[in-house]
Write a structure and sequence with these properties.
Number of strands: 12
CATH class of the largest domain: Alpha Beta
CATH topology of the largest domain: BirA Bifunctional Protein, domain 2
Oligomer: single chain
CATH superfamily of the largest domain: Bira Bifunctional Protein, Domain 2
Bound molecules: adenosine monophosphate, zinc ion
Helix content: 25-40%
Structural class: alpha+beta
Shape: globular
Mean pLDDT: 96
Largest sheet: 7 strands, mixed
Strand content: 15-25%
CATH architecture of the largest domain: 2-Layer Sandwich
């Protein structure tokens, strides 16, 4: 049995994750959720004084905003759209007939105006752009959202529905690059507090197709994205638990987002994969939170 299946099985057995019959789609136990809540509180302690504006979006976004974002150019294979039944009574009868005879009942479903959010920050850029130019100090936002990516896998760290906590910075290139650098340092300190070994490396996103190869090279050559990696199901291939993205003026140009002096705004975001971090904690410290090292329990606010 490989390490991925074995960790997944142990998580199911312990009840921390709950099998829903689809790879990458799991229920979470109260204890698992509590670890995530506590880790988020620890993140907060590193961000106090930043005065980020908190905004919550649901896990679905405006299809027009999704189309404008450019996501389909890079990752069409990961996107998830929301479809619904929009037919008449006859269509309904056909649907029920299909169900009864084991045929595909989804063929008649039609696309709605909602697409599942692929990364917590995607709904933010058009929202902020609508407000007008950024203030002189730029913008700083705190987000958390369930995200969907169609990448079924038996690796428990590769889910189809998972939560991302993000900080997003908007402003001049200097402002956003400094923000990203600061969080790379904070990320290392944060993980050290909870006893997790990390390395930081340039990222390799799964850009689609032949055109994607160019985007991949561009991302690597220009250091547009770094990841903080922690071994979870493979020592040789540690898992990205945080990412640090510099989008340059991509979203600024796309949504006509400008700085206070009318320049196209640059943006950067820092994302925490919350389930991955919880899994890293369970993998490194054991499946029983009560048995975790004292320093780790203290950092997460558990009583001694
Ligand atoms: P990305 O936009 O790909 O950089 O994702 C941001 C963060 O979300 C990553 O650093 C991961 O920690 C987390 N993440 C990405 N994909 C998944 C997934 N399939 N399952 C769980 N967490 C993920
Ligand atoms: Zn982002």
């Amino acid at each position: 049995m490989d390490m991925q299946t074995s960790l997944l099985d142990r998580l199911f057995e312990s009840g921390l994750l709950i099998d829903m019959g689809v790879e990458g789609l799991y229920g979470r136990s109260g204890e698992f959720e509590d670890v995530i809540r506590r880790f988020e509180a620890l993140i907060e302690t590193f961000a106090t004084g930043d005065a980020a504006e908190a905004i919550s979006f649901p896990p679905g976004m405006n299809k027009a905003h999704f189309e404008g974002s450019g996501y389909l150019k890079s990752f069409p294979q990961l996107a998830g759209t929301v479809h619904s039944f929009c037919g008449n009574e006859l269509d309904h009868m056909n649907l029920l007939q299909c169900l009864e005879t084991g045929q595909d009942w989804t063929k008649g479903q039609e696309a709605t105006d909602i697409v599942l959010t692929p990364a917590a920050c995607y709904p933010l850029y058009p929202t902020v752009a609508k407000r007008g130019p950024l203030p002189v100090k730029g913008g700083l936002f705190a987000l958390q959202s369930y995200c969907f990516r169609h990448e079924p896998s038996n690796d428990p760290a590769r889910m189809q529905l998972f939560r991302m906590r993000e900080f997003v910075r908007m402003g001049t290139p200097e402002q956003v690059v400094a923000f990203r650098g600061e969080w790379m340092e904070r990320g290392k300190k944060l993980m050290a507090k909870v006893g997790l070994p990390v390395e930081i490396d340039v990222a390799n996103d799964p850009f689609f197709g032949r055109a994607g190869r160019m985007m991949k090279n561009n991302q690597r050559d220009q250091n547009l994205k770094f990841e903080l990696l922690i071994p979870i199901t493979s020592v040789a291939k540690p898992t990205a638990c945080m990412s640090f993205n510099y989008h340059q003026d991509h979203f600024g140009k796309t949504w006509e987002l400008t700085t206070s002096d009318g320049e196209v705004a640059h943006t950067a975001c820092v994302g925490f994969g919350l389930e991955r971090i919880a899994l890293a904690l369970f993998h490194h410290h054991g499946l029983r939170v009560a048995d975790w090292p004292t320093a780790v329990r203290e950092a997460l606010g558990y009583s001694a």
